[in-house]
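User: For documentation purposes, I need each entry recorded in a consistent format: the amino acid sequence on its own, followed directly by the corresponding structure tokens. There are two entries in this batch. Please keep commentary to a minimum and don't merge the entries.

Assistant: Recorded as requested. Entry 1:
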Amino acid sequence: MLDIGYALSPRFPDPPQTDYRRADVRALRYDLFCGDVYLADTEEDRELATAWGWVPVLDFAWALCDIVERLDRDPLGSRSAQPQYAELDFTESTDRLLFERRFGWVEIEAEWRPVGEKPLSFAHSELRREARDFLHDLVADLVDLHEDLADNPAVWTLQSRFPRLP
């Protein structure tokens, strides 16, 4: 089972004068809500986690949802033997998460992990559902911290673009 989580960093707090209601997409994606993220396989007790403290957490959730959709471009979907690739790069680092989908399964590798370490593997449908749940749960948490964020049109658009799945 896949678990996606985060922790906000006390070392990189958001500027106190931030107007969350009017923050633009760039600020939401790259300048605010820094911390660390992880993807965990709870059945195998393995995870891919950052430990840098500066990862823009909302951007990670947003990018992960984008990647899951990019991995689903093959018209054959889960029947496709043709691999689909995507990567998530961390802007302040050369490290990346690498995604490969084949036959409905997605393998996820982190470049900062030791060579030869087995990638995490999840059903594409599970990754899609969990990524969207993570995005919505994260936004709810951030709105609890900063109420004005609930009135930001970019956040509305993001949530409507990636609705929760049943």
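Entry 2:
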Amino acid sequence: MNINDLNTSMINVNIPKIKELEGELRSILEFWGKNTCDDVNGGFVAELNAEGKQTEATEKGAVLNARLLWTFSAAYNFLKEPEYLTLAKRAYDYLVKFFWDKKNGGVYWSVNKDGSVLNNRKQAYAQGFAIYGFSEYYKASKNQESLNYAIELFKLIENHYMCSKHGGYIEALSDNWQALEDMRLSDKDANEPKSMNTHLHIIEPYTNLFRVWPNQVLKESIQEQIRVFKDKIIDTETYHFNLFFDYDWSVKSNIVSYGHDIEGAWLLNEAAHVIQDQNLMDKMKKLSLNMAEITLLSGLDVDGSMVYELENGHLDTDKHWWPQAEALVGFIDAFQNSGELKYMNAANKIWQFILNFIKDEKNGEWYWKVDENGNPDISLPKVGFWKCPYHNSRALMEAITRIKSMKLK
């Protein structure tokens, strides 16, 4: 089926409205632009509560700041409005001044509100997001220095985090690239040397870097990572991601993360397409559709929203903001790859759930999560170490671009 021949007159297909998607994108960007700039200490505030008011938290994380750099750079590239480039420059200047290790290279995990280093560990995940931000900012600003930072980080990851014996990347190192006993990304994660999450958020920025720096060594790294996902991380019996691993890729977890499954499905598709490897494009198209299908069957509630995760047989029925965002893109991607209307209908149901329950109509932006009845958890921050605008703003930009490209009428 030729996707470009499809239109909304076909039976039983519902498509998110571009006008609504664009309106919500602008609303999210406005919230972050107006409420998160730290005019006292520079950069952006550490945390806002569910009502959008600043809390006493002072730890500023590399991941949030790198994601802000990506978000505002991508917003400028998408909307071409100067205010977003100004905000991107604020994020860039702060990341370079306070997070960059001028002695050893790479970005620290976190800093205090005055910019002094708080946690100097070098998480591979954070290096990846810095590449994501630096490469997108280069695309927006043509600042060669930003591209240089992204390239240096790519080389640091390849030189220091690569597991030469079994492939893939280890989780974390010290500030001067020494081994750590505790390599966890967060308190909720297993202390294992390799994880799906870190690998996903290394292939994601590598793909973005390749768009502006089509280097052969980088391409080969992306190809190898796709093979790692295909052969080591995706469970070929269930088509879910395994989450944690020992050095030799022995599986060390029993958790299904529905949001990561659907996010990974479209990101791996994207990686294969960006490097134009036809063999991997064919393989990932098939695998990603299998992942989308199992997510459709087991990860959605009766209202069309995505539940959080399944651990040791226990289903967490809360609906977090970021899996809803990634499902919006992931199911549109599955529709583009298959022409099966059920995937676009699923994307539309997710979108309606976001509008009705995840979006905070009163205070702006999206709640961190709601329960199975749609009640928001207002104890969790609206802005914070892990609460960022990259998932939802990216989902909206992707959805708008993809729906427009289909020429659906």
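Summary note for entry 2:
The first strand starts at residue 60 and ends at 61.
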